[in-house]
Amino acid sequence: MTETKQELMGPWGFKLRLRQQSGSAFLCTGSIGSFEAVERHTGRLDGYRAREARYQGRALASYEDEENATTTFLWLGPHHELSWTVGGRDVSFDMFARMLSGVNLDDSPAGLVVLAKRGTGGSVAMTVAANSLVNLCALTVMPTGDPSVSVPTHAGKKVAGGILWRSDEKLADGTVRRSAVIASASALTYLGFFDPDSSANAEVAESIQVQLA
């Protein structure tokens, strides 16, 4: 999906839109343990009520946020996890299991593939992909066909990956947040640079190429 000389931080995380006859839902993928790692970092993990279950030989977990009345379910594979957040407390694992019954999950070290099962009338589409280039920038990729995607209206610069727009935002403390947007025929890529003064920023912005199948 991505062509760059820089090293990726790790596997891509994806936000997927699952459409089934029962309705639509958003699912998120990440490396195994990523949900707990993020929630522990933000100090929220200890505030959840955790439960466990099994589904077709794999572990399931749920984390109930009592303060906000939401529940996050996780399917835990050998390498990656799939999560779904729904409103409510004391939500049955059966709801998550019914959703999972309509998809095929193929987990490998290279990534987690989520496909709707044939004959169910369902579909799976990527809405957001996220990763980072080591010591350089955060990457967010969205398909250009998604209704929520919009590109800047002013003229951009033609680069290897499409059309480039740069942006500098001065924060209240006087520091600068530097970012870039690159639009190709299939993807809109956001680069959020960690060091606004790094000489590598321009190099990666003008050379990175992202294409979605």
From TrEMBL:
Lineage top rank: taxon: Bacteria
Name by which UniProt lists this protein: Htaa domain-containing protein
Organism: Plantactinospora solaniradicis
